[in-house]
Amino acid sequence: MKTLIAPILEALRNQARFRRTRAALASLSLDARLDLDIYDIDATARRAIWG
Predict the structure, then answer these.
(1) pLDDT of the chain along its 51 residues, tens only?
(2) Exposure pattern of 2-12 as b/e (b: 16+ CB <10 Å)?
(3) Backbone phi, then psi, for 38, in 5-degree steps?
(4) HEC states along 7-41?
(5) 3: DSSP letter
(6) CA nearest 22: which of 4, 40, 35?
(7) Would you kindly state where each structural domain of the chain is located, as residue ranges?
(8) Which of 10, 30, 13 is closest to 21 using CA atoms?
(9) What is the DSSP code (8-state) at residue 51?
């Protein structure tokens, strides 16, 4: 039973991590994002979580 639930829980954790990361990136000012070469918030958050 654990092997059935583990991937689902992992996917939920990753989705929560993605939402938190995306929110943190969105809270940065535009100048800060440009200085860090962050142009696409969604793609950057996705890469940070899923590689």
Answers:
(1) 788 999 999 999 999 999 999 999 999 999 999 999 999 999 999 999 999
(2) eeeeeeeeeee
(3) -105, 105
(4) HHHHHHHHHHHHHHHHHHHHHCCHHHHHHCCCCCH
(5) H
(6) 40
(7) 2-50
(8) 13
(9) -
